[in-house]
Design brief:
The protein is mainly alpha-helical. The chain has 12 helices and 3 strands.
Length: 333
């Protein structure tokens, strides 16, 4: 099997399958068609459902992450709390809980997700923009957020947050059949697709994720615009970005290092895995997704080259990647 095939990211299951115009040649067995009843993994899955997921939901409450959405929705007053990318922890737990619901019905958990999703929907601005770090007080946005939308994509994490929103929305839709969060994601994605592109803003996310998430949203909705935008964002990396000025926070100067965010060259020319390892993995998954769904041979060849570089030179025996840790950042050199 070619390395490209090994990298293909697939949707695991679908409660309401939609056949997009183009889909993967090889598709995964649905998650709900697999039963795990062994003595090792089955108990861990139950602990995840009964302990880990409730604990994370509580932590999001206790640390102000949910409160940020309440402020953006007008339910509470006060400034944004924490880092501008903290919203993703709310999205990620919705995604994780949705996978759990797909396997084990849990009315209480389902109700909790419905409440969170309603709050997120109330936090969304009329044109689809969803970023409490700005919405709470547009004149005085949270630290690290620029004076206008999308201006500091090097480090604002606006598109990164959106990507995790899409991942959560698709997982919830596929697990429950409900469109409540999916419709929120669609409104936001439509705004992103109108904003970025050959006739829009020439910028890319400093932290990749939205590229692969747009592919997943395309596969859930069949809207080819999402795949086209994902392809453009992948192709735009490594080019001049006139709508992306340097990130001004001196404490995060690495955001202006183009290699740190795999933006040092067009992806079709990249041969080595460099920079922030988490960012890289999101990008490489997106390159592979787009190559598989558009038959882009140049992207496929780039994915194969990068795969070979990672697995032959930059992979620990544990399966981990990133040659050194600096704080919470895993880096390659």
């Amino acid at each position: 099997m070619k390395p490209l095939a090994l990298l293909v990211v697939v949707t695991l299951f679908s409660a309401a399958p939609i056949v997009p115009p183009r889909d993967y040649a090889i598709r995964a067995v649905p998650l709900t068609a697999v039963t795990i009843d062994d003595g090792f993994w089955a108990p861990k899955l139950e602990v995840n459902r009964t302990v880990t997921i409730p604990h994370i939901l509580k932590e999001n409450d206790d640390t102000g992450r949910v409160a940020n959405f309440e402020k953006a929705a007008g339910r509470k007053s006060g400034p944004y709390e924490g880092r501008r990318f903290n919203d993703t922890d709310v999205y990620k737990i919705i995604e994780a809980a949705s996978y759990s619901l797909a396997l084990v019905p849990d009315p209480r958990l389902g109700t909790r997700l419905d409440e969170l999703i309603q709050l997120i929907a109330e936090s969304q601005e009329k044109d689809g923009y969803l970023f409490p770090a700005r919405t709470i007080d547009p004149q005085h946005p949270a630290a690290g957020v620029g004076p206008e939308r999308w201006i500091y994509e090097n480090g604002s994490h606006e598109l990164y947050n959106a990507g995790h929103l899409y991942e959560a929305a698709v997982a919830h839709f596929e697990a429950t059949g409900k469109r409540s969060l999916l419709d929120v994601a669609i409104r936001n994605a439509d705004l992103v697709c109108r904003t970025f592109g050959p006739n829009g803003r020439h910028a890319v996310s400093g932290h990749e994720e939205i590229e692969a998430a747009l592919v997943r949203l395309y596969r859930a909705t069949g809207n080819a615009t999402y795949l086209k935008t994902a392809e453009w964002l992948v192709a735009e990396r490594g080019k001049p970005h006139p709508d992306m000025p340097p990130y001004p926070d001196k404490a995060f100067e690495m955001y202006n290092d183009r290699a740190y965010k795999q933006d040092q060259a067009p992806v079709v020319e990249q041969e080595r895995a460099v920079g922030h390892a988490v960012r890289a993995m999101y990008l490489y998954a997106a390159i592979t997704d787009v190559a598989a769904l558009t038959n882009n041979d140049a992207f496929a060849q780039a994915a194969d080259r990068l795969w070979q570089d990672v697995v032959s030179r930059r992979l620990y025996v544990t399966g981990g990647v990133g040659s050194r840790g600096t704080g919470r950042r895993s880096l390659w050199h």
